[in-house]
Design a protein that fits this description.
This protein has helices at 6-9, 15-28, 47-58, 71-85, 99-111, 127-134, 154-160, 183-193, 221-224, 256-267, 275-286, 290-311, 332-337, 344-355, 379-392; strands at residues 34-35, 94-97, 117-122, 138-143, 165-171, 200-204, 232-237, 250-253, 326-327, 357-358, 360-361, 371-374. The protein has 393 residues and is α/β, with parallel strands linked by helices. Bound molecules: pyridoxal-5'-phosphate. Keywords: Aminotransferase, Pyridoxal phosphate, Transferase.
């Protein structure tokens, strides 16, 4: 056997990708499996975005670009931050990366040392703790269950912060819970953070555009507490808003010193994100925005259907969400009622094998007894999946 690094052995492969792979495998073997594991919109990338990329290829825009992104795309990102979030960044304060995933990876590598602590509210996006571990640092998980709408309280945050805290992660609206923090809640968290000036803050706004309450503007912690700007990184990307997960473009805005360090990490790993994808992302940010509204309408309608259908099943309780294309029901009642099933992992296995429904167990996101259901699939698939789960319940 070959000796692998302690580093790689400290992490596990992404559980969400594993479920999707298992569903694919069963389907290839002829089994009828409805996939509710997807972490990406089921819509096609909008046509004007594709056309921009095709034109880029034809024009020969197929070489290295600046490591941190083309000046044109950075300009589009700066304009987006101004227009939609009220932030004024200079080009030196922006880094374009290969997906939101690389933005966070760069950040972890750039600011964390062994022994540093990173506060991560649970349930969390699966990659945060593992990317923190890969940087040699320590994830400090703060549990927030359904009774607090999966959001941490200021008292919990205070309890988790120490003089070793180097980074605090906020993801709102959240993958996997679909919950978003209000301005008041963020203001209260910001007040606690003021007492820990050595802690950087990462706000992951990947689901900014997938929110049901379109009357209330999106807020992140910087909107609520502008004084935190010198130590806050705003992470976002085009993957979810424009159905561009495969193009791999994410971006970060933040203090120049940190952005520069993140860029240095990127320059020694991937270099620039794909030139063609950068042109596509620019078209997404600068072009017509009605594609977002169309997807949002479909997600909202499916959300309403699924939440109601789940709550009608004995043993499942599901809170309505604020946004994203996930719902995060409590399934402990169902676990208790099924023979041979004693936790959410076993429930996920049971459902995929016995009901032909693939979903991701809550423990993959740090909260046992729940499941993440993706509504990024057709209404027909969702109806059938709800019938199948009701059938075994
Ligand atoms: N942040 C959150 C909360 C996510 O859910 C995801 C994708 O699942 C990402 C970041 C990364 O997105 P990307 O595909 O752009 O790397």
């Amino acid at each position: 056997t070959i000796k692998l690094s302690a580093r790689v052995q400290s992490v596990k492969p992404s559980a969400t990708l594993a479920i999707t792979a298992r569903a694919k495998e069963l389907r290839a073997a002829g089994k009828d499996v409805i996939g509710l594991g997807a972490g990406e919109p089921d819509f096609d990338t909008p046509e004007h975005i594709k056309q921009a990329a095709i034109a880029a290829i034809r024009d020969g825009f197929t070489k290295y670009t600046a490591v941190d992104g083309t000046p044109e795309l950075k300009g589009a990102i700066i304009a987006k931050f101004q227009r939609e979030n009220g932030f004024d960044y200079r080009p030196e304060e922006i880094l374009v990366s290969c997906g939101g995933k690389q933005s966070f990876f760069n950040l972890a590598q750039a600011v964390l040392d062994p022994g540093d602590e990173v506060v991560i509210p649970a349930p969390y996006w699966v990659s945060y703790p593992d990317m923190v571990l890969l940087a040699g640092a320590v994830p400090v998980l703060v549990d927030a269950g359904a009774e607090q709408r999966f959001k941490i309280t200021p008292a919990q945050l205070r309890g988790a912060l120490t003089e070793r805290t180097r980074l605090v992660v906020i993801n709102s609206p959240s993958n996997p819970t679909g919950m978003a923090y209000s301005r008041d809640e963020l203001t209260a968290l910001g007040e606690v953070l003021r007492d820990f000036p050595q802690a950087l803050i990462a706000t992951d706004d990947m689901y900014e555009h997938i929110r049901w309450d379109t009357q209330t503007p999106f807020v992140n912690i910087l909107n609520a507490c502008p004084d935190l700007a010198p130590r806050t990184l705003v992470l976002n990307g085009v993957s979810k808003a424009y159905s561009m997960t495969g193009w791999r473009i994410g971006y970060a805005g933040g203090p120049e010193q940190v952005i520069k360090a993140m860029k240095k990490i990127q320059s020694q790993s991937t270099s620039n994100p794909t030139s063609i994808s950068q042109v596509a992302a620019q078209a997404a940010l600068e072009g017509p925005q009605d594609c977002i509204g169309e997807m949002l309408g479909a997600f909202r309608e499916r959300h309403d259907f699924v939440v109601e259908a789940l709550n009608r099943i004995d043993g499942i309780e599901c809170l309505p969400t604020d946004g994203t294309f996930y719902v995060f029901p409590k399934v402990t009642g169902l676990i208790q009622r099924l023979d041979g099933v004693s936790n959410d992992l076993e429930l996920a296995e049971y459902l995929i094998e016995q009901a032909g429904v693939a979903l991701v167990p809550g423990s993959a996101f740090g909260l046992d007894g729940y499941a993440r259901i993706s509504i990024a699939t057709s209404r027909q698939n969702l109806e059938q999946a709800m019938q199948r789960i009701a059938g075994i319940a």
